[in-house]
Amino acid sequence: MEAEYFLNGWLKPCHNITMTQVEESHPEWMKEPQKHTRDFYNTYQVSQEQHDEWYIWAINEIAKKYRCSKKKAKHDFALAYLNVAPSVHINNSQTNIESLDK
Q1: Which helix (H) or strand (E) holds 23?
Q2: Does residue 98 form part of some domain?
Q3: Which of 2, 10, 14, 17 is most buried, most CB within 10 Å of its CB?
Q4: Which residues contact 30 (CB under 8 A, 6 or more apart)?
Q5: pTM, two decimal places
Q6: Are 9 and 57 spatial neighbours (Cβ–Cβ below 8 Å)?
Q7: For every one of its 102 residues, what pLDDT tens digit does the chain have, with 9 covering 90 and above?
Q8: Does 99 reside within a domain?
Q9: Pairwise CA distance, residues 21 & 102, whole Å
């Protein structure tokens, strides 16, 4: 399964856009993807709930495609997750780390 499949798995329902459309809208990101990774993930953030729904969808898709258990799908998806998971928008004005200073 291609990374784009999993990226579209959250881009389409959360932002009504696909990776192809992102590439067309931001050609400079495609020229130097490593330089613009943060731009991409900041622009297309999702809520924690959207992330969790996408994760369940991704695990189910892997389990179905490879006819394996969800436990095995989670294990096999662990490293790929780092490259395709959406960035979660934190609604709190203060992160947990900042609150430790008080």
Answers
A1: helix 19-25
A2: no
A3: 10
A4: 23
A5: 0.83
A6: yes
A7: 899 999 999 999 999 999 999 999 999 998 998 889 999 999 999 999 999 999 999 999 999 999 999 999 999 999 999 999 999 998 754 444 444 444
A8: no
A9: 44
